[in-house]
Amino acid sequence: MSETKHNWTKEEILDIYNKPLMELLYEAATIHRLHHDPNTVQVSTLLSIKTGGCSEDCGYCPQAARYHTNIEGNDLMTVQQVKAQALRAKSSGSSRVCMGAAWRNVKDGEEFDQVLEMVRTINKLDMEVCCTLGMVTENQAQRLAEAGLYAYNHNLDSSEEYYKEVISTRGFEDRLETIDNVRKTNVTVCSGGIIGMGEKKEDRAGMLVALSTLNPQPESTPINALVAVEGTPLEDQEPVSIWDMIRMVATTRIVMPETQVRLSAGRTQMTREGQAMCFFAGANSIFAGDKLLTTPNPDVNEDMKMFELLGLNPQKPFTKKVQPKTVEATESQYQDLGEKPKWTRPEHTIARNEKAKEKAKTIK
Ligand code: SF4
């Protein structure tokens, strides 16, 4: 079995990305077979537990309050609502529920306590639980771990250089710090990014350098194709080509052999044949459900038909790691410290983000 390498350089990764396609696919598929069952795909359901109204300025995101998009915002869901959705996801073949809240960061208090209860509830349904709640402190990550969280998602989005062209309200190092805080617990790390935001191949390679040089590497890496939403700064980006997606998946598979590589946003723009090539290239996870937070996603029945056609099976929960134990709130050894994670506000603005913000003011 090939060793996991933690000192990839941008040049080495670019050499892989630029290989003749058949060679790239063959190499990625070979590595995939050494580390994973090629006919098993992990299925996650992404649930937006709190939608819209976010104070950040991520250029791709319709949930940023400063842009004018047609999404319907909602307050934090109740534990019962989340449980009902999780049961539905379980009955349609998902092994994991990923709960997303449009927050810049976690704030200790009532709402976080409610999220911790959601984590306990889903873990008791024998499903893997993932959260994506923005930045977290080490204590908050420990509290999530204690509640039974299986994974925490915090994407790097792009290379450190291109990140500055997409988000101005926090720095790349803030992302790394949250990942580091999660790593101090027994929660697995899910981190990836988005292609099609106008970045160069070098940025795609740069993002993979940042992810693959983490030690350990993330247990899962979502590769998203930008869904350009009207009203966001990136609304005019052309859809990314399927060939770029296949190359990105294959390259991720080669540099991160053990990681579950997830086909995430943008699957509605892909044909079944395109998705099949991504699975061949080493993708072994998808998001199921008709919505990915706020953007469209293929219907779960369509996905199950595709699985049947390709002879793929949904992965059972806790195949890669044992189920975490849930500690009840009354027995917790951690306290609510009233914390907010440290973060930096970079000293720059992004022209297209400012333009979208100004345009939104004229529409509201
Ligand atoms: S991606 Fe997350 S942090 Fe950025 S604007 Fe959207 S909800 Fe907020």
UniProtKB/TrEMBL annotation:
Cofactor(s) required, per the database record: [4Fe-4S] cluster; [2Fe-2S] cluster
Pathway(s) per entry: Cofactor biosynthesis; biotin biosynthesis; biotin from 7,8-diaminononanoate: step 2/2
Residues that, per the record, bind [2Fe-2S] cluster: C98, C130, C190, R262
Entry keyword annotation includes Metal-binding: yes
Keywords recorded for this protein, A-Z: 2Fe-2S, 4Fe-4S, Biotin biosynthesis, Iron, Iron-sulfur, Metal-binding, S-adenosyl-L-methionine, Transferase
Ranges of biased composition (kind: Basic and acidic residues): 337-364
Binding note for cofactor: Binds 1 [4Fe-4S] cluster. The cluster is coordinated with 3 cysteines and an exchangeable S-adenosyl-L-methionine.
Residue ranges, annotated region (Disordered): 320-364
MF GO annotations: 2 iron, 2 sulfur cluster binding; 4 iron, 4 sulfur cluster binding; biotin synthase activity; iron ion binding
Domain Radical SAM core: 39-267
Any one biological process term the GO annotation gives: biotin biosynthetic process
Enzyme class: transferase
EC number: 2.8.1.6
Catalytic activity: (4R,5S)-dethiobiotin + (sulfur carrier)-SH + 2 reduced [2Fe-2S]-[ferredoxin] + 2 S-adenosyl-L-methionine = (sulfur carrier)-H + biotin + 2 5'-deoxyadenosine + 2 L-methionine + 2 oxidized [2Fe-2S]-[ferredoxin]
Residues that, per the record, bind [4Fe-4S] cluster: C54, C58, C61
Gene3D superfamilies assigned: Aldolase class I
InterPro entries named in the record: Aldolase_TIM (IPR013785), BATS_dom (IPR010722), Biotin_synth/BioAB (IPR002684), Biotin_synthase (IPR024177), Elp3/MiaA/NifB-like_rSAM (IPR006638), rSAM (IPR007197), rSAM_sf (IPR058240)
Biological role stated in the UniProt entry: Catalyzes the conversion of dethiobiotin (DTB) to biotin by the insertion of a sulfur atom into dethiobiotin via a radical-based mechanism.
Self-association and partners: Homodimer.
Family: Belongs to the radical SAM superfamily. Biotin synthase family.
Name assigned to this protein: Biotin synthase
Species this protein is from: Flavivirga aquatica
Gene encoding the protein: bioB
